[in-house]
Amino acid sequence: MEERLTGNNSTVGESGATGTAGEALRGLRDGIPIALGYFAVAFSLGIIAKRGGLTAVQGFITSFFTRASAGEYGVYTLVALSAGYVEVVAMSLVTNLRYLLMSAALSQKIAPGTSLLKRLLMACCVTDEVFGISIVHEGYTPPVYTYSAAFISSLFWASGCAAGIVAGGVLSGNIVAALGVSLYGMFLAIIVPPARRDRNVLYALVASCVLSALCAVMPLVSEVSQGTRIILLTIVISAVAAWLRPINDDDNER
């Protein structure tokens, strides 16, 4: 009896280890397209950071732990203008508030019993694209999957910023802008499959596009920062979608 239990426990342990390693490799695989897009976009941020007087090492470290295009752009711009610490911190908070919403949504994809430390680390890994692939992961999202995707994408993001600083202003702005197009293709790859499977997602997607375009040109509303508009639209659209098309218990279990 003891031998049989020991054998079963050994098998379960090996299976769990294999599953964890498999999810880590899957996270790396899914993170590579994100990483390639990140490198191109971060390269342009590196040129801006160069104007602010940052070295390649400083750019690498700040980008690796920040990973926010709008946030870094605002911060590097303020640094170039010799802004104060309060202004820099305020800019970071305003432009990155959307990650609070993403972290809250991602918490619903974490298996019960997951430690607080692992939950906090997953929250630190959240970017728009890493959130996208983590939220559409079948079943509960293993922390190691998000860690792996975040690591490879962060490495390329930081490397792209450092490379941009080294390159300085050598490349023209048109070339840098062209390199950033790949990031939009990545967004489409994230949102199109769920929209094809679920019409409610499609309706929310169309509403997001239309309202975002309108808010960008409407008087008064267009004067609000882009980050704040994203937060307000996310809250309004998700609240209306949840009210009109709530997820029933059967769909939630599935």
Structure description:
There is one protein chain. With 254 residues, the chain is an all-alpha fold. It is globular, with a radius of gyration of 21 Å. Helix 1 runs parallel beside helix 8. Helix content is 80%, strand content 0%. The model is unreliable at 1-15 (pLDDT under 50).
Which features characterize this protein?
single chain; 254 residues; mainly alpha; disordered N terminus
Gist of the model:
This protein has 254 residues and is mainly α.
Note the beta-strand portion: under 5%
* Overall 3D shape: globular
**Uncertain residue ranges:** 1-15
- Element order: H for helix, E for strand: HHHHHHHHHHHHH
Query: What is the gyration radius calculated from CA atoms?
Result: 21 Å
Number of strands: 0
What distance lies between the first and last C-alpha atoms, to the nearest angstrom? 37 Å
Mean model confidence by pLDDT? 80
Q: Please state the structural category.
A: mainly alpha
Total DSSP helices: 13
Blueprint (SSEs and pairs):
Layout lengths: L1 H50 L4 H11 L2 H12 L4 H12 L1 H9 L9 H10 L2 H8 L7 H25 L5 H7 L1 H17 L1 H19 L8 H19 L4 H5 L1
Helix pairs in contact: 1-3, 1-8, 1-9, 1-10, 2-8, 3-4, 5-7, 6-8, 7-8, 10-11, 11-12
